[in-house]
Structure prediction request, 651 residues.
Amino acid sequence: MTDIALQAIGLVRRIEGVVAHTLVNGIDLAANKGEFLAITGPSGSGKSSLLYLLGLLDAPSEGEVIICGQSTSKLSESERADVRLTKCGFVFQFHFLLAEFTALDNVLLPMRAAGRMTESEMRERGLSLLDSLGLSEHANKHPNQLSGGQRQRVAIARALANRPEIIVADEPTGALDTASTEQVFSILRDIADEGQTVIVVTHDPALAARADRRIHIVDGKIAETTERGVGELILETGK
Amino acid sequence: MKLVLNIAWTHVSTRVRQTLVGMAGVAMGVGFTIMMAGLMQGSQIDFLRQLVDTMPHVTVEDERRSVPTQPAEQEYGAVQMSDIANVGRRAGIRYPESVMNSLRAWIPGDVAPSVKTTAIIDHGGARIGITLTGIDPRFEVRVSKLASQMRQGKLDDLSRASNGIIVGEALAEKLGLKTGNTVRLIGGQGTRLNSTVVGLFRSGLKRVDESQIYSLTGPAQIMMGQNGVINQLRLRLDDPLSAQKVAAQVEAQTGYQSVSWQEANADLLSTFTVRDFIVLTVMGAMLLTSSFATYNIISTITHEKRQDIAIMKSLGMREYAVRRIFIVEAVIIGVVGILFGWILGYLLCYGWSQITIFNPLTGTTVPLQIYYSPMHYLVAGGISLLCCAGAAYFPARKATRVHPVEIIRGSS
Ligand SMILES: Nc1ncnc2c1ncn2[C@@H]1O[C@H](COP(=O)(O)OP(=O)(O)O)[C@@H](O)[C@H]1O
Ligand SMILES: [Mg+2]
Prediction:
């Protein structure tokens, strides 16, 4: 049990409105510490919606998300924000860096918001993160001075800032060229190998194949789960 | 908080033009408010000071506030008497010397006796009703500014001529009187008295200058037909603002109607209250409008930064912390604007004080009176700051309430 970083039980997300819509329709899954999980599926199948639920950005209509053994269903909006700040790192397709800040300041943002380190400790960590992502000479550049791949790597550094147990990435390479895509993926792979749980949504089957486990979603449900190294064995089909 | 400040500063410092417009708005609001307050209070204080200088602070008269209750009314509840004249007693304040001595024992100021009556002044066929006040020049200097209001002659000249009188400048002009002229005074009982004009005064209050004549107590008593009577005591206090309290005590002690200068000018003071209210409302509105530019800027910034807001929230910054960024921005604009507003306000006040106007009270051209008070600066600044924070609060709340998922979905 202690190895499970994140667990989802019976997740359902409905949109109330003129046209009611079920984005996520009963998903159970568990991710181990250090596991690299890929979520695939056709466009509009609910991958992003699921990711928002897993990262506590959105609250489920039914079911619950358990992060590091802690149930999150009864948390207030502020408490969920605190969990996001310290336990989940987000990477989106669009980098969402603050334009007025340098790469380093963007990476420092979550640490400053958490306020658990001194300024010099934060800077040291920020610089070493940028360094490990090959961005050491870009620390003082603004996002508009960086390439797409560089920006996305800054966004990853920002997601890693508070040493979260879980990194969720929604098509992080969707807007990148092949070389940058490769780079970002190997970084995510390394992060998982260092013990953090990585959940990434991707369209690219080749990349998904490099994950420890691949979860295919259709119409808000898990259609199939593929474990790597077990010869693309289909463990579970439909639900 | 440091992060909030940092982001806020970045937002405002990268929008120099907008920020300057916001600051200019605040500065003008604060500046003009300070100017208005200084002018308002300056003219008011100036006016009151002259009023207080000209008038006795408390006047004790040989009258009662209402008709005394009749013995029959006191005896029988069913009895009601009407049409009773408030007379039937001897005119004048009884034993004025001892009353004055007992008042001098405790009032913080001084007291002087006088005889007040009405008469008609007859000069060359023109007849004008006037108020004749008989005074004692020795005491008069202690309770009124008459001595310093003299344009021609001196108070002491009253005793140098037979039945000497001092006439208001405006009245003298009307009648073509000059010092040394003789006029005839006609009293209520038809008493006629030939008097010599020994001096002219100017108080600045038109109604006084047109109808007031001073003489010694003797001639006034003759005009009244009451020998030796004193029907008015006038008090001058060290602190004019204590007049109401002292008047009440004097009235309780002596039983004579004692009127403070505030009571005597209640109508005037109440117009001041109305004026104050109007001006305060206008100043408040001015400060409020001056924060509109700030509202505009914060609205723009929160709109432009929708994505940043979403990402900060998604990263785990709490909503109120994100909201605070924009309020801090407004406060930065407000504080700088207020500082400039203070300077502007001071300069405007200084500018006005260089302008001279004709003052009817003194008959001279004097600079506009400006009242400088740190309170004006603090209050204008404080209200302005609140307006700015309020102006930022609403757009900031609206923008930070939006769920980050809505924005993130919309942009990817
Ligand atoms: N607020 C919403 N109201 C109605 N439909 C929505 C809303 N948000 C998302 N959807 C729809 O739900 C479906 C699932 O969306 P999403 O989770 O983004 O899918 P994916 O990431 O797999 O492309 C899509 O068809 C999308 O258009
Ligand atoms: Mg998606």
Notes: Residues 231-239 of chain A have pLDDT under 50 and may be disordered. Residues A 15, 21, 23, 41, 43-49; B 409 surround adenosine-5'-diphosphate (ligand 1) (CB under 6 Å). The two ends of chain A are 24 Å apart (CA to CA). Chain A is about 35% helix and 30% strand.
